[in-house]
Amino acid sequence: CIKHRRTTEPLWHKWDEKAQKCGLRHTVYAVNGDQYTGEWLDNLKHGKGTQVWKRTGAIYSGDWKFGKRDGYGSYSIPDPVTKEYKKVYTGWWKNDRKCGYGETFYPGGERYEGEWNGGLRSGWGRMYYQDGSIYEGQWLEDQPGGQGMLRLPNENRYEGGWKDGMKHGPGKFFYLDKGQLFEGIWAADRPKCGILIDFGRDEAPAPTQYPIPKV
What we know:
By secondary structure, this protein is mainly beta. Helices cover 4% and strands 58% of the residues. The N and C termini lie far apart (115 Å).
């Protein structure tokens, strides 16, 4: 007699499929103590979820795609003294890196709001520095690059080109405290050539002793 071979799948295939986390919310603890609570797809974090890293205490809550932070979410760390959570970044992610619009809070009270690409400030953004200065303009690879304005704590400001985080190219520097304006060419943060004129001298709080003669 002829014996027919079984064509049905082994039972362990079915058991394996049922064991895979998919769609529903689960809490999983890693060997190193990290913890994730959220949605899954094919055994990967996918959907809404929260990850807690045991070593640093950092926490991310937001969107995931195929095991990586992707979409909108916030990242926070605990204060070393008070242990209260401080927000570090809130915004968009792609492939586990900051990408798109987001806001970052730095130690010392500095803050950046604007565009990111590959985890670096890139595009248009505004940076609030610890000394009270504010830069608003274009960024490239985490530094001011392109066209932008830097306003100093005393209200003096520079408007013009930037490269590698330094003033570079045509630009204007408004010395509002002295009532003067320098307009010229900059290279590596230094003015190379240009013209200095009186600008709003009558309203300046500390004008120079002698006015600049008109050409």
